């Protein structure tokens, strides 16, 4: 049991370090706690015969550790939902949620005594989070940028004006919406497609020069 517990702590910490380095909401300690909790629950389920309780007279206790695994993975799903949030057109935290869910599965493997599979799973997750991110950076030709602008209703630039501003910075508008806020301001959200060499300062400068805008926000997408 001590080997399983130690393995779950190391595995959760290794995965959590990468998320902590990226500044994600679920980092080092969270991944350790998730992996350790899953391991402890599986260890307890696998040793149900040692539980302190009195069964019904002439009754038999039948242990089914797989039910514990199902319960853990379902419960972790609610925790994963807490790190996913939407901002404009983009959704953040999906990779972190997936890493938390996978970490819980690795903890279950340690608790079940499948050390080889648990270690292989830990290494695979780190490869996906670290090495494939590097490869993805070389292969991807475009990135997505979310831009939100605010303006007065009477002077708000229309779609053609916004596309012209973005086009001057080498950006292509992939999606655009329209909203009127409770304070009477027009809010436009734009999903932009840009090259990997995109310069955020040039876009900020172009938006600052647009006198019809009262405020703006630029949010490059990330995982």
TrEMBL record:
It is a multi-pass membrane protein. It is found in: Cell inner membrane; Cell membrane. The chain crosses the membrane at residues 26-46, 67-85, 105-132. It comes from the Bacteria. Keywords: Cell inner membrane, Cell membrane, Membrane, Transmembrane, Transmembrane helix. PANTHER family: MAGNESIUM TRANSPORTER YHID-RELATED, PROTEIN MGTC. Belongs to the MgtC/SapB family. This is Protein MgtC.
